[in-house]
Amino acid sequence: MKLIISSVSGEPIYEQIKTQIRSAVLSGELKAGEALPSLRKLAKELRISVLTVTRAYNELADEGVVQNIQGKGTFVMDKGNELMQRQLETQIRESLAEASRGAKAAGIPLDALDRMLEEEYRKK
What we know:
Elements: H1 13-27, H2 39-46, H3 50-63, E1 66-69, E2 73-76, H4 82-106, H5 110-122
Antiparallel strand pairs: 1-2
């Protein structure tokens, strides 16, 4: 897995790391039980602070995406993990709420919004 960090995106670096790791887990690129790079290794590779990587890993652990094992490292959890499923559903609902507000503000009717969602869902 190759992480790409942008210092000009406006999104905090730890969030970029979280998003990319979460996507890799959901896509199957990272398998359950697979180890993530060590904190120091990833920080050195990305030329960022170890604290930034630590924050990303800890927040992913809180979401149930990974598990931190003291002295061993950070490992990918199973996608079927109940906590991870709830977290993902919450994120999806928040994104849908934001999209709904935007559609209302733009005067886009519900049926058009439904079509847009279906188109996005079917994309590979």
